[in-house]
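Example protein
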Amino acid sequence: MRTEEISVEEIIVPEDFIRSETEARKNLVQLAKSIEDVGLIHPIKVAPKDDGYVLVAGFRRLLAHKQLGRETIRTEVLDKPVDEIERTRISLIENIQREKLIQSEEIEAAVRLYLFYGKYTTVAEKLYIDYNRARDLVGLQDASDDLIKLVGRGRGRIGRKKAIELLKSYPDDPEKVIELAKTYASKGLTKDERERMFEVIKENPDRTVEEIKKEIQKPRKRFEFVTVLPVRYYQRFENACEERDMDPPELAKFVLMEWIDENVPE
């Protein structure tokens, strides 16, 4: 890879570039002012293509140079052409390293890689993330922008797994998904009520959001016990937890409720 000044007119931006121009132009004035004041700190990345270059990473920096009327831009040129998948991967990794990544872009990149390779393990390897995160990102492919903004850790957020669970419960009702996600992320809910919310959804998904809110406020009877499994069952139980991406207590509760439904009359 070499670094050189290249004419901005020689650089082609692919139609399927991971960041849309609308998104890239947000706060572009500030970036352009920064470049004008202190120069370009991070060169953009391009790959050779035909008689010119194709953009790999640095769309906002390229737009800022055009806005400033700059004719050339400092560029890292890859040694050989790259396909769409490799271009997406490099762009995503650079954004992660620069901590500028928009979550919707990460989801889009993971989905593209999954559709191309068909394996979560490969997605994880290509993006340098763990297997569970790769699977979660792909699972969020149908999430609306409003839901994606709520996904995360801490107060006022909903975890990726829970968001995916809502998407699976209501694939044709995005508004209900958002309402329930906001309910889950609200300050007033206790940890127990959040857990109860998903139990209520599983028991009767047709309930309205208001009915679900009322139901989760009802107290639950709690039983806690320790189960010692023989080695041959323990290993299989661990495997089942991994396959279903469930914690041991969560899977144990699921198995118990399933057994009760099948064997104990109401």
Residues 143-222 form one domain. The longest helix spans residues 248-263. The mean pLDDT is 84. The CA atoms of residues 107 and 137 lie 5 Å apart.
